[in-house]
Amino acid sequence: MIQLFPFFGRCFYALLWCDFMQREEILSIDEFVAHADELVESLNVSADKLILTKNGSGIAVIQSWQEYHKLQNALLMLKIIAQAEKEIREGQGREQSLVFSNLNHSLDSRNE
Fold this sequence. Notes:
Elements: H1 8-19, E1 24-28, H2 29-34, H3 36-45, E2 49-54, E3 57-62, H4 65-89, H5 96-111
Parallel strand pairs: 1-2
Antiparallel strand pairs: 2-3
């Protein structure tokens, strides 16, 4: 179950956590090398991740390009939210009504 927090940022973090809760498979590097083609193909079909180990310790994570891209976009969004929260704490934020008023004015100017 997703826990929703009253503050948007925390709610967003909770949703991302649920979105990225995926199945992980742990394999030795030797097992991966022996079956690399099949394993990489399976990553393209599922959202799973492969954790590769050597001598029992994790050394790498392999995931599909789509999942990597999705993760990078989510991290970028979290960085933007963190920057916005910092600006608000520092008093650099603007009232929502002012932002939308300026946006509506800009859109109206384009339509004229």
